[in-house]
Fold this sequence. Notes:
There is one protein chain. The radius of gyration is 18 Å and the shape is elongated. The protein has one domain (about 10-155). The protein has helices at about 10-35, 40-75, 85-115, 120-155. α1 (about 10-35) runs antiparallel to α4 and α2 packs parallel to α4. The longest helix is centred in the C-terminal third of the chain and has 39 residues, at about 120-155. It is an all-alpha fold and about 160 residues long.
Amino acid sequence: MKIMATTPGLEVGIHVFFGLLALLSTTALISIIQIGSTNKRLIKILAIATSLFVWFAWLTVIPVYTIAYAADKAVIVAYPQTAPAHEFGMETKEHIFYTGLFLAMLLPILAYTVDIEKSWNRKLILWSAIIILIGGIIMEILGGWISVAAKQAWSFKAGG
């Protein structure tokens, strides 16, 4: 059974795509909460969308990290110029991702259970979304660093 996409790199692109959709839906949720909207239906939809997009990003990257990343990791850590991308970047990214995953699961629970007309409840949803957004931006930066480091490491290995 072939798990990987037939186009090399496509599975990483899908992962990043869902990550960006999660950032967009989180940004929309933050905006809606910040302007004082009490549209419960919209807040619930955006909370669910954020949670689903984060989960889709996680599920679509499983084949990359379990099958494809091992070769890149071996080459990245072999060179002192690129090793920090894995040693710091990937390790940090993993911890941020799991925190974001739990917060993203919490968003729909909050959207369905708290009274958004109360200031404290709005702040709870708002700050959960802000933490997801900041974590997502940091993960995008770290992912770019790891990607560039992999290209550099393969170039070094090829004699470049």
